Amino acid sequence: MQPSALLRPGEWYDVIVASFQRVASTVVGYVPNLLGAIAILIAGWLIAKAVQSAAGRIMRWTKLDALFARTSLEQSLRNAGLDTTTTGVIEKLTYWIVFVVFLIAAADTLGLEVVNTALTRFVGYIPSVIAAVLILAFGAYIARIVRDGITAGMMQARLAYPQTVGRIAEAALMVFVVIIGLAQLGLDVDILVSNMSIIVAGLMLAVAISFGLGVRDIVGNVVAAYYVRQLVKTGDALQVAGRTGKVHQLRQTSVVLDTPDGYVLVPNREFLTTVTGPSRPGPASPPESISEQ
């Protein structure tokens, strides 16, 4: 095998000149594409800014900004340390949607196939992101309406902890709204749904047991009311747990006795187990009925 012949001094010059010519030809041929891509990006930036401004005006004109301000998303953004509003997020999202379209065109002009493919996939994913944002926004709005309704209803009924129960209901609804939003993004939420179903079932069972234990006495007194009405009537004189008096009123859960010390309420179950009598000497004119509590 013979060694390759060495280049003569004049041939070195020709090789270097040819290399520079090839590089210059490539650069000169690429410059129009580069200038075209820059022009596309500048035009895309201007158009994206215009569309962003138009989107903001439309939301303010249609009062969507006020609607979003009444949802819990605003508070969530502040808690996350973001100095913006839901309307601002949508405006930014609109800007990037338009600008990315021009980025794809610029990448295609420069022949950047990898960048073009990645941006195309990103744009195809944007509708799912928009749908998820809308689901979260309107879900948060509905959850807040439910929270306010439950709180107002419980306050009107003078029930305990109306604010706490309202917030729990809002949080429960938001959990399901977030799951729906994640599913819209194409994420696998089957495991999350299964776990949430177990948690919700456990909470419902706990509430049912607590409610059952809490109303056990009430239900027992309501059932006992049927047998009390079979046993005594208004005006009957009797003795209950050492207290002597006349039956003034029969209620759903208790018996009102008119005793020398005043009116006494005796639960129906206690009444059945401790009553002695009744005695009915004749028609009586009972005192004025006290109001139901």
Please state the CA-atom Rg, rounded to the nearest Å. 40 Å
Class from helix and strand fractions: alpha+beta
Strand order of the largest sheet: 4-3-2-1-5
Shape: rod-shaped
Mean model confidence by pLDDT:
76
Total tally of structural domains: 2
Order of helices and strands: HHHHHHHEEEEHE
Helix content: over 70%
Distance between the termini: 117 Å
Number of helices: 8
Strand elements, count:
5
Mind describing the biggest β-sheet? 5 strands, antiparallel
Low-confidence stretches: 280-293
Strand content: 5-15%
Structural overview:
There is one protein chain. The chain is α+β, with helices and mostly antiparallel strands and 293 residues long. The protein has helices spanning 9-61, 64-69, 73-79, 86-110, 113-156, 162-184, 190-231, 268-274, and strands at residues 237-240, 243-250, 254-259, 262-267, 275-279. Helices cover 71% and strands 10% of the residues. Strands 4-3-2-1-5 form a five-stranded antiparallel sheet. It has eight helices and five strands; from the N terminus they run H-H-H-H-H-H-H-E-E-E-E-H-E. The chain has two domains: 10-187, no CATH class; 189-278, Roll (SH3 type barrels), CATH 2.30.30. The radius of gyration is 40 Å and the shape is rod-shaped.
